[in-house]
Task: structure prediction
Amino acid sequence: MTDWYALILAAGSGTRMQSSGNKVFLDVCGQSVLERSIRAIAPFVQGIILVTRKEDMQEARAITETISLPCSLEYTTGGATRQDSVECGLRLIPENCTFVMIHDAARCLVSEDLIRRVMQDAERNGSAIPAIPVTDTIKVIGADQRISTTPDRNTLFAVQTPQALRVGELRKAFAHARETGFQGTDDASLLEHAGFPVYISQGERSNLKITMPEDLGQARRILRTREDESMPNYEYHVGYGYDVHQFAAERKLILCGIEVPYTRGLLGHSDADVALHALMDAMLGSAALGDIGHLFPDTDPAYLGISSILLLQKTVEALKASKASVIQADLCIVAQKPKLAPYIDAMRERIAQCLELPVSKVSVKATTTEHLGFEGREEGISATAVVMTRVET
Result:
């Protein structure tokens, strides 16, 4: 496995941000700029060297020491220039480390995809600098503000961080820069000056560098968009179910998985739980999965006398396989006798347990027909159910 370290640079003054302190301590959607950068890089490296100003060290430690990280984290103070700060951090990288990623803490929106791509490209080519094509026309201006030339923008790229480089080559490049008095604007320019080849990797326009006050607003918009895109898209469906069973002697009366004491039960191939049958039909209908007769045919001996609670659990699994889940259920049991009020709470709890819902999301009601119809004549019981289901699209 290739050894990787990261230098995260937070030693700038940030005067263009017009803030009272270092811009890396500013909040972006609940986390500081610094914390977001560290959290992004940490899963990919064995260690991080954080380079900051001496006057910012205490605050940087206060932020970072509360973060649980999968890698080591060390601190050092930077120098007068970016180049000096990188060299300060470079001294703490172990001699046996192969590659280093140098990242501006102000680029707190760096994505996992970009980090992986830069690392893979560096291991293949020896270096990788994320860059994006310049889309604006660029003008070179002379001292008198007169345009001197217009370079071909097809050859121009705006570079970003993290810049992934071989540690050995970077150390040689710094030594050469000291000998020649060269000052580069980024780490790649030092390697270029020392004669090492540098390759670009595909950058991302969302890899914004927090520099100006308006950048904070843009960063927050990017983060909100990412959160929206990472959330599954849902549709909400409604299902309706109805079932009826006649009374039969020498049968237990089972409603919503609860045994209700009574002189008769309901006739059916299973335990004839009319309420759960209506509920299951509503669930299957909401996900367009047919009905219980199709899923659990009464000609199949496997379902003879089976508990409808077990069938309900199988129905829940069928919905899960279709990326659907019930979020609310409302049942109505129609029976002249027996009185069901004492058992309603237990019924709700049993259904809620099977549907993996709070009891507050399950309603069970019981009513009579004032002696009208087959229910009123005490020939049987009917039930209806309505469910709302969330389906991932």
The two ends are 39 Å apart (CA to CA).
